[in-house]
Amino acid sequence: MTRVLVVDDEPQIVRALELNLRARQYEVDSAGDGTTALRLAAERHPDVIVLDLGLPDMDGVDVLRGLRSWSRVPVLVLSARQSSDEKVQALDAGADDYVTKPFGMDELLARLRAAVRRTEPAAPDEEAEVVDAADFTVDLAAKRVHRQGRDVRLTPTEWHLLEVLVRNTGRLVSQKQLLQEVWGPSYGTESNYLRVYMAQLRRKLETDPAHPCHFITEPGMGYRFERRPQG
């Protein structure tokens, strides 16, 4: 069974998550503060953590940094903080995803399942690094994209952006991380670059670029690549 650690100081949210997760056959531990969360993470070895940032004894970002000093367990932040700076700070500290309160339980559970799937070992036939999306395939080793029976021509920058997103399939990648990985360490705030190149990738690879289902924008935070349309 998948074990989830819920970290939140609001009892009603903890109860709601416990009920919904246990109804779906998850094992659940809970903590109301950061100190307890770090102890339980070390003792119980959860498969995924749902973490609130506003904890009574320490900031959730500090909990994240503590976890990341020894663990790569996926962490789904669940917080009322909605400013872009705070979201980016959590992502840069090691969060795998970010959901704002109030939240929809179905969306939260879907993102939690996606976080768990990303930790599962790849099957032997996936070692060739060919990523099969619903509308196209990406061959990471050969640096080729195939769509509707033919190769898609990408510029070097378009390919680099696509590669970073595909290697983080399902994970929210912050604007800062994308800019620094694609354009270099001196870049971090030129979000207009991302908008231009994401529009080009969508035009070349999405069936409906105006309503993308593979290259998802998380406003104020970054972008996420999904193999299959969300639903």
Automatic annotation (TrEMBL):
Compartments, record wording: Cytoplasm
Gene3D superfamilies: 3.40.50.2300, 6.10.250.690, Winged helix-like DNA-binding domain superfamily/Winged helix DNA-binding domain
GO biological process assignments: positive regulation of DNA-templated transcription
Main location: cytoplasm
Domain of life: Bacteria
Any single GO CC term annotated in Swiss-Prot or TrEMBL for this entry: protein-DNA complex
Single GO molecular function: cis-regulatory region sequence-specific DNA binding
Domain OmpR/PhoB-type: 128-227
Modified residues annotated as 4-aspartylphosphate in this record: 52
Keywords: Cytoplasm, DNA-binding, Phosphoprotein, Transcription, Transcription regulation, Two-component regulatory system
Domain Response regulatory positions: 3-116
Entries under Pfam families matching the protein: Response_reg, Trans_reg_C
Primary role: Member of the two-component regulatory system KdpD/KdpE involved in the regulation of the kdp operon. Upon phosphorylation by KdpD, functions as a transcription regulator by direct binding to promoter regions of target genes to positively regulate their expression.
DNA-binding region boundaries: 128-227
Protein name as it appears in the record: Transcriptional regulatory protein KdpE
